[in-house]
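Hi U.,

Before I forget, here's the chain from the pilot set. I'm dumping it here mostly so it's searchable later in email.
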Amino acid sequence: MTASPGRVDYDVVVVGGGPAGSAAARRLGRAGVRVAVLESHRFPRLKPCGNLVSHFARSHLEFDLPPGIVRGEARGAVVSFGSHVARILTPPFGVFCFRTDLDHFLIDRAVDAGAELRDATTVCGVTIEGTAGVPRVRLSTRNGSTLTAHYVIGADGANSVVARYVRRRPLGRYERAVGLMELRPTPATGWKPEDDGLLFIDLNASRTGYGWVFPQGTHQNIGVAGWAPFFRHAKAAFATFASRLPDGGPRQQHGHLIPVGVFRYRIARGPLLLTGDAAGLLNLASGEGIGYAIASGQLAGDAIVRALAAPHAHADAAQRYTHLVRSSIAKELRAASCLAALILATRRLHFALEPTDADAIFGRLFAAVAGTTTYANLARFVFSHLPLYVAKWAWHSAGRSLSARVRPGTVGHGPSF
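Structure:
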């Protein structure tokens, strides 16, 4: 690496040790960059998540996941929508891994590549300095220490401290979703062996989201999520959803904030680059974030390696990283956001869809999760079939209205879906 004027503690500091931070640190470490990862918790640590690692996410890893952390394979879903339940079997599209295991494994790979891990270190302030056009950032930590670096990668999640200095605005009211999840032992009764590997998704559990049960071997990941402005009673929704499960009501939930659509805004400013949830790189159609976190972390690392290698290219890191994300990840996220908006705007159509419709839509959705098709293709399919779905909903509604007017003792012949 080319040294720059102005002494710093590290060439790059990565704030956050999740998949995005680990991916960035590993790329930088392998290139010989002096990089440190600051993580506010000690590993292994709990991370609220559905624990599904898609084949799309795995395709961005440069190594295999060890069998010891894989707790099952996702191969389909049971989807409840309206009055229907559809059982959809697909080719495998992901594996289940507890985030405590996955994140610990990934950060170890970054350390093996040369990164320094400083866990139990919380960043609370960012100051951009610089001399002769060379970037320099000073980080303040909660324990009173300071660190300096040429670049800082924000991989510190939806509540990112670094993002405050990049976007210079908090998340707006309509830019937040809320999720509640709980990890509990798999009940001894009420679950069938043939259901292993199936995602249970209930579109009725939240007016602006869904509920889920992801069986993961000895445990189940249970949760609900919804758009924050219309999901103010998340705990009550979780309690209602959990009470319908074989082992009863809720126990101890873990909440997390989900950024909505903020990837459209600035994701880099000067020597500060945002990745993963900090950049809002979340797929609103599938809820996936791990794959985009890994991909964006690698892109951020590559952009900085190139900037450090060229004496006069420091100003190009943010611009290059932004271009890489906009031309790859953001395209898919825009298509997924349009799809999610359509689903949200047409919730009533769910009551008129047939299981065959769900099979066609969710089969393509899981193919997109696996990375074998794109969300743009999925969005085109749904939009092209929208007139048919609207017609079914209108016919279904007319049938219900007619049935309600039939006198007792007579037979109604309304449509049935």
